[in-house]
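Morning!

This is the sequence you dropped in the shared folder:
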Amino acid sequence: MDGSYFAGFDLVTAALYAFWIFFLSLVLYLNRESKREGYPLVTPGKHHDRPEGFPPTPAPKFWKLPHGGTAQSPPASDPQIPIHAVWADPTPGAPLIPTGNPMVDGVGPAAYALRRDEPDLTFDDSTPKIVPLRVAPEWSVDPKDPDPRGMTVVDADWQPAGVCVDVWIDKSEVIFRYLEVEVETENGPKRVMVPVPLMVIHSDKNVIRVRTLTAEQFKLAPTLKNPDTITLREEDRVSAYVASGQLFGKPERSQPWI
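The structure's back. Tokens below.
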């Protein structure tokens, strides 16, 4: 019976085996490529313990960015930012309890991604994509819509928090992204940003309400390093700060309903 196995090895069997090999290779490849983001892993409390698993992390790839420079994935460095929180208990997966102001410290819903600390640029002329109207005179508010500039900004309790001084437009998407609000602090005037989706204009009362923040929290909001541009990292930080007030803005918001 020598050779009887291969005597029944036809094209269908060969195709089946080829599919199995292809499918296994595809699964291994996709699992390996999935480790380009979020790796190496870090074990909580053990920053030197970095499990990798199988398959291993792939070799770095490099991409040329459209406006110059390159990007590497997985990244060459893994910045370790101190977390201002403690574990509720030693059980794996236990929640974090903030040790300071979670909105300022970037804990929980106030956390933000460490994207490039540079402005996003337009495709055509490589200029900052999101800018205030004061530096983009070719753009304006539609006369049929209420102009928020000059309106009083009120907080969750309808208390005055500041005054809207400008509107920031996304020139690529042709949509308003942020309101620039001037607030009075103990150290003088300060300008902060509020994402448009997190505010409501009450034109009948000539006020803009931001229900996620209190007047005092407006004073602690992050500022921009350049008054006329906003970086990718600043976008995430601003949005995280204002949105996190939905949970952290008032003590009762983080408590159970029942």
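Headline: Residues 114-254 form a domain with the Photosynthetic Reaction Center; Chain H, domain 2 fold (CATH 3.90.50.10).

More detail when I'm at my desk.
O.
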